[in-house]
């Protein structure tokens, strides 16, 4: 909410416009979610908060109408989340809410009272933000409690994800952010397409992409402000890849329609693999007496760099040398081929060196200018994505099972 909130204090922006657009609307109930009502006043307050978040200075009537629809969707989801919280007896204290708002305020360079004043000066009732925080906190606790201990990220998943990251470094990469509006039906797509157009207008007017992604995106990256990191186009949706490929350079894409929704992509930068430099940490395990059988036997039992070092410490016929931060390009064609063929912790083929035989273990492989995450970082990333996908799927299931009556439907 950062810069958009601060900028909002200088003008009478979105909330008054929102209020004015609704003065002719008969106050009452706009929707009922499992017997719990959502009023026009609730929707008006949330719409004002959304417009403020996006930094809308002078929203058009079309933008206000579209944000009203988005506000109602948010409020329906929050009703469902809070109903689940009551079912599981999850309580969110005022202290929890105040702490969350204070954290948000700090991101804006304000304290809690300062943030509340910004809201009030812009015609936004702070209660709308408090209720949003209550639902978000409760839902996180429910999802974490139900599924956090059930999610298992296997070694193979981590290995495959890291290998995919390394492979991507050999291709042209794009630094991208995403906003994804979930729309499984054609009717939903038409509405989402209008919403994407409204969001795009605000982004082009200076609204922070990360804030819009946090508030509006259905992608697992929403918690990170839509940040996809550096990706190869082969690893993303075909339609999105094609749109990025056709962009002239950094900027925000037009809405991109895919099978289950609409994307907006923020293309930040591009880099070529020849701009990168591969470096490795190695352990060279050699046999003193030149016996290939002895070396192969030792290598078959040592399944990591540390194991190779320990094997050499225990056997006087073996020697191990650690080589750190070696530039792969300096190893020559044969050395590069051997190193590229093996996974981390595995030995290369036997080769001759200094009058004896040896194998080389690859302990680490990285690209300068492009950080490959550690195993722990990748595990955390995969866990977060999995929990986010479960959370979104659970909320969609709640919507399908709920009794939701909207005015006019």
UniProtKB/TrEMBL annotation:
Keywords: Chaperone, Isomerase, Periplasm, Rotamase, Signal
PANTHER family named in the record: CHAPERONE SURA
Top-level taxon of the source organism: Bacteria
Keyword Isomerase recorded: yes
Sample GO molecular function, one term: peptidyl-prolyl cis-trans isomerase activity
Protein's UniProt name: Parvulin-like PPIase
Organism field: Henriciella barbarensis
Signal peptide start and end residues: 1-19
Residues annotated as domain PpiC: 171-269
